[in-house]
Amino acid sequence: MFRRLFLIILLTLLIVIAGLAFLTLDQSPIVTRESSRQVDNADTVKDLLKQLKNSVEDRHAQQKVLISESQFESLMGFAQRALPGFQGAVEIDPGKTVIQASMALPAPADSLFINLTAQVFPADGVDIDYVRIGSLIIPGDTALNIAVWLVDKFTKSDVASTAANQITRVTMTDAELTLDMRPLDELLAQIDVARENISDGEDPLGELTTSYLAFLDDSPLGNSPTPQTIAKYLNLVLSRAAALSDESTAVIHNQAALLSLAIYLGDHRISQLVGASHPTPGDVTEPRAPAVLAQRNDLAKHFTISAAIQILSQQNMTLAIGEFKELMDRAMGGSGYSFVDLAADMSGMAFARVASDPNSARQVQAMAEARLRERDILPYIGGLPEGLSKAEFRRRYTEVDSPAYRKQVADIQQRIDNLALYQLNTGSGN
After folding, report:
1. What are the tens digits of pLDDT across the range 38-68?
2. Exposure of 202 in the CB half-sphere (CA atoms within 13 A)
3. Is the pTM of this model over 0.85?
4. Which end of the chain is more exposed for a tag (fewer CB within 10 A), N or C?
5. From CA 386, how far away is CA 342, in angstroms rounded?
6. Per-residue pLDDT tens for 355-407?
7. Both ends of the chain: CA-CA distance in Å?
8. Which neighbouring-strand residues pair with 116?
């Protein structure tokens, strides 16, 4: 009797799953946008980031954030370049905003797609008309309530409930959306609660990174009154990694060493992503003089931050972030698109890959003990264009992914591949 009941339940579940798959999966994407065209207006995102930064800094005041269609499209283009298989689009009209996204399933089901459409109306609060997943249509209120319940349940917090009530009014004009919001203080506090609740309390990488950060803070190199090359910092932390690790722990020590450099020399806020602590609570840990790469502090930052992002994410994400940042810099007042910066980004990614590969982690440590030089970690950057305005970038390359642009990036990649350090894991399959 029990066996028969079990088979009936199992069969019912299989029918439900098959039915949901039939309703939610499509054989073609509903969005077919070229990311290279979407990110062409990445320079407009600078204004949005400025607004968000001001909102966080002024967290106790009412907020108003304006988001244009071109900014939405640029962010969708960035997501497409960072997440293979994803495509998204946003259309803003005075009477409604339509958000669409398509995601290809991984192989062997990569001929199937999850298509999502959401329609939002201008209103007090958030008025979602409906959410469509494939052929399945869910009323907006129901979809929002389900999402809020799931996130709150998973995080054991009120972060989703707080976020859902954050927006007090949504208004739309032609190609621009305005959000009136409550002060962000409560939401930011709930985000901290959620982050703490979903942590399992054990974070070996974060704890190890904290240890390396304290080591850097006490080092003569970090306390030098003159700028020091990033190569010296790599030699310092990776030699320590060699002394403290063995074959089984070399990767995590190398990663912690590189993450500590990204926090110390690049951006102290990376510590929040890693779960690392600064040696002195409340104080930002940084060197007495900025680090340099090719006698430039900006390249040292590009290298270390890209190495950290590579460790914390996928390769596509790291390169997409580097590209998007350069595209934003084409705006008036920005430094312009720089293939030199991109070379530092790509070199940092390559360094993180060989240092994180079990087949080459110990070899990287050995090379650091024998003293790496700048020419070992960064290829020749002569002749690489930089400081390109939006107009000049378009004149030379038309857009990202054009043959001319791909040729330039391929040239940088070849220069990197020619360095002995980055040939260590060529045959490892990574």
Report:
1. 888 888 888 888 888 888 888 899 989 999 9
2. 0
3. no
4. N
5. 10
6. 999 999 999 999 999 999 999 999 999 999 999 988 899 999 998 889 999 99
7. 52
8. 101, 133
